Fold Dipeptidase.
Amino acid sequence: MEQIKDYITTHKDRFISELVELLKIPSISADTAFSQDVLETAKIVEKSLKDAGCDKTEICETKGYPVVYGEKIIDPNLPTILVYGHYDVQPPDPMELWTSPPFEPVIKKTDLHPEGAIFARGACDDKGQMYMHVKAIEFMIKNDVLPCNVKLMIEGEEEVGSDSLADFLTEHKEKLANDIILISDTGMIANDVPSITTGLRGLSYVEVEVTGPNRDLHSGIYGGAVPNPINVLNKMIASLHDENNHITIPGFYDKVEEVSDAERKEMAKAPFNLDDYKKALDIGDVQGEKGFTTSERYSIRPTLDVNGIWGGYTGEGAKTVIASKAYAKISMRLVPDQDPDEITQLFTEHFKAIAPKSVKVKVTPHHGGLPYVTNMDSLGYKAAAKAYETTFGKTPVPERTGGSIPIVALFEQVLESKTILMGFGLDSDAIHSPNEHFGVWNYLKGIETIPYFYKYYSELAK
Ligand code: BES
Ligand code: MN
Ligand code: MN
């Protein structure tokens, strides 16, 4: 595997320019106006798997956007690694906050990326991180050092909840059979603090609608005498946390796994600087559940957050009006052993129960997903740790992250395999935000590290 360094030196310009081409296509799965672009991206990804040396590639239809599949089977008796990634991206808005257009990638230097970072929607999440695998596999196949079998499934609906994937997994269980799943769709602590993600939070996402009067009203003629759905909705939302920032939904915490003091102590060893954290986000103070540290609040504790709220008049100037309806989108991040369907149910019952008689309330569930944790004793974790030790010269820190990749729990249920999450992005890479970027160093380091995972995993699995 040692040739990987030279291979990167020789081919790095091409590795970057290929990723840049991929980033130019706006594969926004949430917006149907871009459906042709999403489909076009699937084709380019398929071609890249062919070019990397996969024996078989395929664009697999689903109810939604297709899954791109590729494989290189060298010997059925050897272990098989299944790589998962996604080629769809988040919508880029708000557009005006981008310093360069989201689908015209450019390389710019930043404080944390002195060697430059590629700025584009999807640069880190997940086109850049997915493409590291394609290039790592290209290296292993072209240099005849692939030590095991590899399969890849790259989906196009991750950012909208992977709706078609449960069926896809069940239907293609045989085809996707593997010993371990490898994903780069998370982050690491810092370029000099490599980490392996050992946990992901689950998700329950709902939309609520509060209806007051049957039409918009003059806020002078009727104001003060009728329910204002926007006022009511805000009060209801405010009541969902108590003064200690505990969530007030009855039963919400019933299944939350209490992490032992010993484990909390172990987790607290991961480097975290509160001042830097506040400074990076330009916030006067942090906020969260009493009794837990900031890192615990975003990893081992569940949350409830309003992601969007609207209603009434928001145009220029002032319009005096009491709206008929108010809306909000609310996400709840879940931890083991909370169940998304159960939490959605508890939320719905509670939200209806706290609504005053003066309004009508509707709750619509969106996507959800189960949380995931993995332990450090597995072959996969050990192989990943050795890979980082080889290329970073440091033992990676295990870290539970706050984000969600719902498919990971499904992999465990349907394919009965564990997942190793080797992320190379930084939290500051602005995924889902304007000016998303991915360090060129991180991109190349990922390509360098991945082949060692193959090597050590194949050795350990013997
Ligand atoms: N790659 C992210 C998840 C992620 C990012 C996990 C960073 C850990 C660290 C993924 O694409 C994502 O955005 N997931 C969504 C959930 C999905 C159902 C839309 C999320 O976490 O909001
Ligand atoms: Mn992602
Ligand atoms: Mn994402």
The chain has two domains: 4-200+371-460, 202-256+302-369.
